[in-house]
Amino acid sequence: MRVTVIQMNQGSDKAANIAEARRLIEAALEADRPHLLSLPETWTNLGGGRAAREAAAEALPEPGGTGGPAYEFLREVARGAGVHVHGGSIIERGEGILHNTSLVFDPAGREIARYRKIHLFDITGPDGTGYRESALYGGGDALVTFEAGGLRFGCAICYDIRFPEQYLALRRLGAEAILVPSNFTLMTGKDHWEVLLRARAIETQCWILAAASWGAYEERGATRQVYGHSLIADPWGHVVARCSDGVGWATARIDPALTARVRRDMPVLEHRRLA
Fold first, then answer.
1. What total number of domains does the chain contain?
2. Cα–Cα distance between 20 and 44 in angstroms, integer?
3. Which residue in 94, 134, 163, 239 has a CA-CA distance of 20 to 30 Å to 191?
4. Coil, strand or helix: which one is 8?
5. For residues 259 and 29, what is the distance between their CA atoms, to the nearest angstrom?
6. Largest distance between two CA atoms of the chain
């Protein structure tokens, strides 16, 4: 199964972000013909403050219903290309609150998974910049997996990567690969991004698919930077595909035989004693 992670430099213009996603997806489909595509975290909006995020938010429909522009774009891509589409995450408008929400569509354009980010990014970065995701979003409380191409995928988003218990729980639910769409800050990304992703791959013996945003964006009059370096890691922790700086994509083939061999030769799940 071929999988592709898309790397974007989105801003606060939702229509422009959708157009850029379309361009990159079409190029990746033509070049690599993946069976599953994954976009970054909040790919329809990055920056612009609360008003821009609220303007980009979409109320999500009941199964089979009609959604907003980003929702219908993801559905259209899945159905038109006959592939699974993991829509990174978009901003979901709930009742009195927003959520950072992943959506997954099957090749018929049916929504098959919906995951709300559990761990919210409330930190002060090494450069003193504060981030308070909980001031805008509500956290989710449910683990989510889905099936695609005969494989079980687990869902996570960005800051979730720092909580290995979530990844272990996804492995116990049968996950063979875990998707981690992200907007990792430059300051934390340069030191922690790859090592955390590889650690989660090694611990869970899962493939890790991490589509990330890259570059500069404006937030309340200040310029901020996100790290990018989208990557795919195998269950042994090797990085088998990655993006450099700039927009683009990376593609790799998930090999179930490798997953089975790693888990057979080092059965860490069977050996666990404390959790």
1. 1
2. 10
3. 134
4. strand
5. 25
6. 53
Active site residue 158: yes
Q: Measure the CA–CA gap between 84 and 75, rounded to whole angstroms.
A: 9
Annotated catalytic residue: which of 20, 41, 111, 176? Answer: 41
Look up 147 and say whether it is catalytic.
no
The per-residue pLDDT for range 120-158, each reduced to its tens digit, is: 999 998 888 888 999 899 999 999 999 999 999 999 999
DSSP-derived letter for residue 168 is H
From 117, 155, 176, 243, active-site residue: 117
Residue ranges making up the domain that contains 94: 2-271
Contacts of 128 by beta carbon, 8 Å cutoff, 6+ apart: none
Percent of the chain with pLDDT over 70: 100
* CA gap 246, 177 in Å, rounded: 25
C-alpha 41/C-alpha 62 separation (Å) is: 22
Count CA within 13 A, CB hemisphere, residue 137. 24
Of 158, 176, 206, 243, catalytic: 158
Residue 63, pLDDT score? 82
The CB-based long-range contact list for 23-32 (8 Å cut-off, 24+ gap) reads 24/247, 24/248, 24/249, 25/77, 25/81, 27/249, 28/4, 28/249, 28/251, 29/81, 29/83, 31/251, 32/2, 32/4, 32/249, 32/251
Contact by Cβ (8 Å): 72, 88? no
- What's this model's pTM, rounded to 2 decimal places? 0.97
> Does residue 88 sit in helix, strand or coil?
coil
What are the CA-CA distances from residue 128 to residues 119, 124, 199, 201 (Å)? 21, 6, 26, 30
* CATH value at residue 177: 3.60.110.10
The reply to whether 206 belongs to the active site is no
pLDDT in the model for residue 204: 98
